[in-house]
Specification:
The complex is a heterodimer.
Chain A lengths: L7 H18 L4 E2 L5 E2 L5 H10 L1 H22 L8 H13 L14 H23 L5 H17 L6 H23 L9 H30 L8
Antiparallel strand pairs in A: 1-2
Helix pairs in contact in A: 1-2, 1-3, 2-3, 3-4, 4-7, 5-6, 5-8, 7-8
Chain B lengths: L20 H17 L3 H18 L2 H29 L6 H27 L2 H10 L4 H30 L9 H32 L18 H23 L5 H6 L1
Helix pairs in contact in B: 1-4, 1-8, 2-4, 3-4, 5-6, 6-7
Classes of the chains: A mainly alpha, B mainly alpha.
């Protein structure tokens, strides 16, 4: 067998936190026809662990959570979230592994009020970027402008270490994984007039944006209350 | 909690449950490939009904019917969109082959749902973990996965208790605007995390007291062995794949519409 990678205590923490995420993952007020749903902050415990123990452990926990999320989706939802083995890899282990990346952002700075403006720029930038993909290349100009503005806003406020930025990065990474899988594997279900790109962006955005807004707020509150360093 | 009944895997011993999960997985992948290869109604109907004996042998009819009932909604959507679009693109004519085509595409979706749900309904988490381990995936990972699966019902009960306790103390979850509601969620989330961490210490102690990680080379009490049933299944799978490829390449399958009209 392989070398032992973690302390027993850390491994036990990973297991319990992933199970907690699994519980929250199955409490869902709203879910989408082909999988993907707005849950009660199911990403939060894993992201919290990533902030507490670092990126490597966060990514490990994310992959385990992804594998746990698959049978939950299969058993709880009345439909199949599976279209293809490669799609399963993209939508589950890979998409959930991105949750660990939040471990890079351990700073204390960056209040939501400061970041609201940055968030608006980032949103406008990504919308224009989607416009560039589906409509015309001209949209790249506003996309770049808003992107620079949002990056500048983060640097200016020295807030790039904020967990909120981390949650945004994770949200983008997870969106990317689901978006690619949507374009490649789920395009058969897209209404013809939408086309695969717009369909995938709308489908995945519709549940990931509320999900990550909720997660960002919860992670922020958890960090503010100092729960990341708790020892019991 | 009924919601988590899916995790309380019913441990029954049937020929299907005792099959090697790796072989079952290959079988599911092949069913998937065959369903993708064919657009023809007749083949997909055969694939659909081929699952029924498996369900009956595995004695998971009730769960199977539940998942089929759930798939019905989405299947209806797929059917209607297909029908409407081919009706519009076909110049507003409702030919029988349009109907057949729409039914075939819907059936393909149903077959995919069917085979995957049978796989998960008949494979216990233990078996899945064992299969992962024997496919040379790091043991920490398999252990984390199988143990997390077992912890889900326990923590779900605890989450319910904490929610009830906080509600009894006057926490109102369904009140206020969006931000207020999320903020109200914190008094549930923090106790949950704290109790989870506490539980993780207990788990760590239990693991250490059983000398977790002390031995480099682990052995298992139960080993997955490829038995007679597995050989039969893998042979059936290969035969099915060969026939499917042969039929696809060299034969043309008549559509139901043409069979009826001749």
């Amino acid at each position: 067998m392989s070398e032992q990678k973690f302390e027993t205590k850390v491994l036990a923490e990973i297991i319990v936190v992933v199970a907690l995420s699994g519980v929250l993952y199955s409490l869902r007020p709203f879910s989408m026809p082909f999988g993907g749903s707005v849950t009660l902050g199911s990403m939060v415990p894993v992201m919290w662990l990533a902030l507490r123990r670092g990126v490597k452990i966060g990514v490990f926990a994310g992959v385990v959570f992804g594998l746990l999320a698959l049978p939950i989706d299969v058993l709880m939802l009345p439909y199949s979230p599976i279209a293809n083995p490669a799609q399963v890899f993209l939508d589950y282990p890979l998409a959930f592994a991105t949750l660990g990346l939040v471990g890079f952002f351990k700073g204390k700075k960056g209040h939501p009020q400061d970041l609201a403006e940055v968030g608006v720029y980032a949103l406008l930038s990504s919308l224009s970027f989607i416009g560039a993909i589906i409509h015309s290349i001209v949209w790249l100009v506003p996309a770049m402008v808003f992107f620079v503005l949002s990056v500048w806003g983060v640097i200016e406020r020295k807030a790039w270490q904020s967990p909120l930025v981390g949650v945004a990065v994770v949200g983008f990474g997870k969106f990317l994984a689901h978006f690619v899988s949507g374009v490649i594997f789920w395009s058969a279900y897209a209404p013809p007039e939408l086309g695969p790109y717009l369909y995938s962006a709308i489908y995945n955005g519709s549940f990931l944006i509320p999900e990550f807004v909720i997660s960002a707020f919860l992670v922020y509150l958890l960090v503010q209350r100092g729960t990341v360093e708790i020892t019991v | 909690m009924s919601m988590f009944s899916g995790f309380q895997f019913r441990k029954i011993s049937t020929p299907i449950h005792n099959l090697d999960p790796r072989i079952k997985f290959i079988f599911v992948i092949v069913i998937f490939a065959v369903a993708i290869m064919f657009n023809e109604f007749l083949v997909l109907v055969v694939l659909f009904f081929a699952h029924i004996p498996i369900v009956l042998v595995a004695k998971v009819q009730r769960e199977w019917i539940r998942s089929m009932r759930g798939a019905a909604f989405l299947a209806t959507i797929i059917f209607v969109t297909n029908l409407v679009f081919s009706y519009i693109y076909g110049g507003y004519q409702l030919a029988p082959w349009i109907l057949e085509n729409a039914i075939a595409l819907t059936l393909r979706f149903v077959v995919l749902v069917e085979s995957f749900s049978i796989f998960f309904l008949t494979t216990s988490p233990d078996h899945l973990g064992l299969a992962l381990e024997q496919s040379h995936i790091p043991y920490e990972f398999c252990f984390a996965f199988t143990t997390a699966v077992r912890f889900v019902p326990v923590l779900a009960e605890e989450a319910q208790t904490i929610m009830d306790a906080q509600k009894a103390r006057g926490l109102e979850l369904e009140k206020g605007n969006f931000l207020k509601r999320i903020r109200n969620y914190i008094p549930i989330l923090i106790p949950l995390i704290v109790s989870a961490i506490r539980r993780s210490l207990e788990l760590a102690e239990a693991m250490e007291s059983k000398a977790w990680g002390a031995i480099k080379k682990r052995t298992n009490l139960y080993e997955l062995k490829v038995r007679k049933g597995d050989y039969i299944l893998i042979t059936l799978t290969i035969v099915m794949l060969i026939i499917a490829v042969y039929v696809r390449l060299y034969l043309s399958i008549p559509s139901l519409t043409s069979l009826i009209s001749h």
